[in-house]
Amino acid sequence: MPGWDRLKNLVSEEFKQGKEEGKPASALDALRQEFDAAGENRMELESLFERLLAVPVEKDFPYEEPDDLKAIQALRPTPGFPLPALTDDDEELRDRLLGAWLGRCAGCALGKPFEIMGLQGLGSDGIQPWMRLKRYLTAVSPDEWPIRDYAPEHSPAQSEKGIGSIICPASTREHIAFMESDDDIRYTVLGLVLMRKNGKDFTSWDVACNWIRRLSYHNVCTAETQAYLNLVRDYEFHIGSGWGKDGPDVDWNRVATRQNPYREWIGAQIRIDAYGYAAAGNPELAAELAWRDARISHTKNGIYGAMFCAAMIAASFVAADPLRIVEAGLEQIPANCRLAEAIRKTVAIVGAPGAEPGRFEEILAAVHKAFESYSPVHTIPNAAICVMAVLLSNGDFHQGITMAVMGGWDTDCNGATVGSITGAITGAKNAPAHWTGRLNDTLRSEIYDYHPIPISECARQSLDVVKTLRE
Fold first, then answer.
1. Most-buried pick from 123, 260, 299, 388 (CB within 10 A)?
2. Do 75 and 49 fall within a single domain?
3. Over its length of 471 residues, how does the chain's per-residue pLDDT go in tens digits?
4. How many domains does the chain have?
């Protein structure tokens, strides 16, 4: 049961993952020879994956990257100045929560048609992924860049090499009438369901059970596919299984790593918005809730990306300064991890928040050059795009989601994450109707009881969760 891909390809990806984690090249090279000779022999490939997992990280690897929550918290940087208190005005908070939900939906819908185009790596001709988006749009009209509207369904450039057609026509400007189902939105709904049922004391086992009960295997990808398989292969989820409140004694590291070379990819980072909403104004709690979710499928920077984004989202309900929001995210992850280093580098590339619009492409090209060695769906480069968009937008809703999508790589994921942040800052009343009105307050999530559902109802339920946690 290889899951997301053929077992041969999973093992091949594990070599790259091991290198990024700091495992010695000599050990990986020795195993590479066995890989080349293994062909499609399942037993040999399974054994090889286990041996790759067992290779220790180099002793002089310059980063500290634990998975345990207490160990992560012990390595956090010294926090900056305190954040303002969360408003006790329920109407204002409801408006900010609705803004966050609308921002997530609008940013996701904007990015969905461009996703395949954005996920292409650096071309042999030096073309960065964002340049393909620009070519697609400017072939329609020079005025289409910077992005000003949802994606056009067709472009004269779609027949050109490396461009191609867009996907998800229901999210194009010609057809959009609701937020169509997407993994970025399904996980936000699942987080809301979990928080309503279990409150802030939910466990990782509760997250797993929520998946099995409500999330179709058809709707999971990469790391989530592998974790889903590992869960159902090793544990019982049937009614009357006999497990106690917290479930069985689960080896979460095993669930997250067994035949899972995608454990530092973006999957956990896109699952945590509901925790940022629930812990509005409390980045530390948001990061802890995100950790409980992320650890079932991810390790190291895959976990940190989830904690970082959840903390930023929580901070955006009380802070308008984009740099302070980014700092609030950094305060919840190890100071000396690859993700933190990448975020600091991105902040340095961007410079002052709200940099001149004319510098956008220069900054974007520099961010791509800095992180193009990673997979286009890895946590680190996409978190960098989110930070770039948050800083350059200076908290503006339109600028935030459009810059995140123009950034390329995982366009719908990044548009959604930045949409949550700028939506919470802006609030629903001040969000541009150009983006939000065309969703017609309708979300189709493919999650039972939430398909379809008014986006405003999701925000109302989120407010109930916040009030319950506050009490």
1. 260
2. no
3. 578 899 999 999 999 999 999 999 999 999 999 999 999 999 999 999 999 999 999 999 999 999 999 999 999 999 988 999 999 999 999 999 999 999 999 999 999 999 999 988 777 678 999 999 999 999 999 999 999 999 999 999 999 988 989 999 999 999 999 999 999 999 999 999 999 999 999 999 999 999 999 999 999 999 999 999 999 999 988 765 656 556 788 999 999 999 999 999 999 999 999 999 999 999 999 999 999 999 999 999 999 999 999 999 999 999 999 999 999 999 999 999 999 999 999 999 998 655 565 789 999 999 999 999 999 999 999 999 999 999 999 999 999 999 999 999 999 999 999 999 999 999 999 999 999 999 999 999 999 999 999 999 999 999 999 999 988
4. 2
Asked whether residue 92 falls in the same domain as residue 41, the answer is: no
Residue 277 domain flag: yes
Residue 150: inside a domain, yes or no?
no
Residue 221 in domain: yes
User: What is the Cα Rg of the chain in Å?
Assistant: 21
**Distance (Å, whole) CA 18 – CA 11:** 10
Distance, CA of 357 to CA of 338 (rounded, Å): 29
Look at residues 21, 22, 18, 20 and name the one whose alpha carbon lies nearest to residue 35: 18
Query: Is residue 421 classed as helix, strand or coil in its secondary structure?
Result: helix
Angstrom distance (rounded) from CA 72 to CA 408: 30
Q: Within a domain: residue 144?
A: no
